[in-house]
Structures are given as C-alpha cells and as structure tokens.
Design a protein that fits this description.
Number of domains: 1
Distance between the termini: 34 Å
Low-confidence stretches: 6-13
CATH topology: Rossmann fold
Mean pLDDT: 87
Order of helices and strands: HEHEHEEHEHEE
Strand content: 25-35%
Largest sheet: 7 strands, mixed
Number of helices: 5
CATH superfamily: Vaccinia Virus protein VP39
Strand order of the largest sheet: 3-2-1-4-5-7-6
Structural class: alpha/beta
CATH architecture: 3-Layer(aba) Sandwich
C-alpha cells in the first residue's frame, strides 16, 4: 500500500488563524452563493475541504456535505469543528481520481485545492461523473503565479491556472453555462495573488 505524505500536517492546527485566508474563503463563498441557490434537500461535495472553511460557509444552505481531503491532519480538525455545523457532514480521506465513489452529488465546490492535482482533465471527468444531471460546479483556485505563493512544499503541481485554459478543460469534459471571474485576492507580504471562481453545470 502506498503511503501518501500529509503535506499539511505541520500547519493544520494553525490553518484558520490566518485572517487573510479565512477572508478569502468567505469571498469565495459569497461568489458561489451569488451564482447558485442551494436547497435544504441537497447533498454536495467539498473537494479538498481541509479544515472546513468553505464547508462551514455553505453548510447552512444544504442538507449534507461530503468532505473529500487526503490530509488526515486537516480532516481531524474538520471532524472536531463539524459537530457545530448546521448540516450533515461526511468525511472521506480518498483520492477521487483513483478511487470510484458511488454517490451522486447536486454540486461540487472547491477552494484552493485543484493546483495540488496533477491531471486536471481526469479530475474534471470524475467531477462530471459524480454529479446529478443539472448538478453544479463551483471551483476556486489561483490565477497564474510565479511559484512564490507556497513558501513550503505542499504537493503543488501547478503555479496557478490561466482562466481560459481552465474553463476550456471544463468545456471539453461537457460542462455547460460556464463562467469564470476573479473573486478575491490573496495578499501576502511578498505579493498579491488573484483567485478565480469557475461555475457551471452538467
């Protein structure tokens, strides 16, 4: 059995102490809620849920969120805090590009995770297969950067994404009604890093 390195073990307990990070996730959530109206009978996925920053923003609007993340240290934090969330929470520590999940979801949301995935098209195909017909995607990630966004190795495969390229991959897979726009800017002492949100549906 292959043992995956937990790239976030050193930072999980302090992850939410960065007010700039929590503010950016709140902006991403606002962008999602402006595009989509969720209902209390819906089951959605948060891909790369981490400690649940985006999960907790969307939880009041849905019935259940399945949180997918491969970092046990991050999901341990999420597991503890999710007791206070206003929807059902299920946590899965799996790589969905390699393991089949039988569930279907009404939406898939994600914040700042996809640059940690090597093959974006395979991931988008999996998203497409996991959604109900009409199901929605709302995926936030970095615009192109010079590699300085991450000061330490957290398993990064992409230094951000060109927005047109990212949208076109989703289009090739079959998603419709696609829209992409900058929704927030991550401000660090050494630079500002725009973050986009891609939305669309199956």
């Amino acid at each position: 059995m292959e043992i995956k390195k937990d790239h976030f073990a050193f930072k999980a307990n302090d992850y939410e102490k960065d007010v700039r990070r929590t503010g950016n996730v709140a902006n991403i959530a606002d962008g999602i809620l402006k595009e989509f109206t969720f209902t209390k009978d819906q089951h959605i996925m948060d891909f790369g849920s981490g400690t649940g920053l985006l999960t907790q923003e969307i939880a009041p609007y849905v019935q259940k969120i399945t949180c997918i993340d491969m970092s046990k240290s991050m999901t341990d934090v999420l597991r503890e805090k999710s007791k206070d969330f206003t929807c059902q929470i299920e946590i899965k520590e799996v790589d969905i590009t390699k393991i089949q999940i039988d569930d279907k979801y009404d939406a898939i949301i994600s914040s700042m995770t996809i640059h940690h995935v090597k093959d974006i098209k395979i991931l988008f195909k999996q998203f497409y297969s996991l959604l109900e017909v009409g199901g929605k995607i709302a995926l936030a990630d970095l615009e192109p950067e010079d590699g300085t966004f991450h000061s330490v190795d957290t398993g990064v495969f992409h230094f951000g994404f060109d927005k047109d390229w990212f949208l076109n991959i989703a289009l090739e897979v079959g998603f419709k009604n696609l829209k992409i726009e900058t929704v927030t800017v991550a401000k660090k002492p050494y630079g500002n890093f725009p973050i986009f949100l891609l939305t669309g549906n199956k």
